[in-house]
Amino acid sequence: MTWTNEVSALAGKCLTEKRFSTPTMLPLTEHVMMFQDYLVKLGDENQKLLKENLHDEKAFKTLTNVALASTIVFNRRRIGDVQYLPMETYKGTSRDQSTLREMIEKMSESEKVLTQTYKHVVAGGKGSRAIEIFFPPAIQSYIETLLEARNNFVPRTIILTRTKTGEGYKIKTMDMCGGGSVYWKWPEKDDILVYSCDDIITKICSPELTVLGSKNN
Fold first, then answer.
1. pLDDT in the model for residue 49
2. What is the rounded distance in angstroms from the CA atom of residue 115 to the CA atom of residue 136?
3. Are 169 and 75 in contact (CB under 8 A)?
4. Which of 68, 75, 158, 195 has its CA 20 to 30 A from that of 116?
């Protein structure tokens, strides 16, 4: 008796047939409504706490999870389509009005009605395909509160990269989301050194380093 042909293949066949006969468990509408009511209650409570104290870390984390879960449930999207949405895309700073009009023209009538009160964002999903995400007013309110307190928990990161020019080496800066470290390359080597944001004031004064600008200044 060989394991590959006589044991594992038959075992795999039995497991596959059992999956066919097992009904797919889907949440009922009343379960989704209960979950939605719970998210609204939890979101309102933590939004109030965060507005009273913008340094409340527990309220910030809870409200973040509530906003993410509410967006996923409302749009019926994968978590990966929502959780990596850039702030620039949400704020609409990277989209011109002509592109926005073209997107609205391609929407269904019900989607056009939603755009009157709901924020409409197009993000990149799996396989670089466009994903349309709608944010109801309540979720927009949560996100605005989170953005107000965000700098208290997610310090900015400055990435300094070296570029060679005719006059020597210059350092370009780029402000990024998250993290609390500063990366730069010394002109004489390629190793990346990591420093905390508190050390940037002293480390940046090196005569070998030229800083062109920083959004944190």
1. 94
2. 9
3. no
4. 68
Asked whether 101 and 55 are in contact (CB, 8 A), the reply is: no
pTM metric for this prediction: 0.58
Q: Which residue has the tokens 């070296």?
A: 162
Give the chain's length.
217
Give pLDDT, residue 192.
38
Distance between CA atoms of residues 174 and 215, nearest Å = 8
Amino acid, res. 164: K
Burial of 172 per CB tally in 10 Å (0-12, 13-18, 19+): middle
Give the span between the Cα atoms of 188 and 209, in whole angstroms.
11
Question: Would you tell me how many other CB atoms lie within 10 Å of the CB of residue 141?
Answer: 15
Predicted local confidence at residue 2, as pLDDT: 58
178-187 own/partner pairs: CB under 8 Å, 24+ apart: 178/154, 179/155, 180/155, 181/157, 182/157, 182/158, 183/157, 183/158, 183/159, 184/159, 184/160, 184/209, 185/160, 185/161, 186/162, 187/162
Tell me which residue of 73, 98, 68 sits closest to 85, measured CA to CA: 68
Segments of the chain scoring below 70 in pLDDT: 1-7, 27, 93-104, 106, 155-217
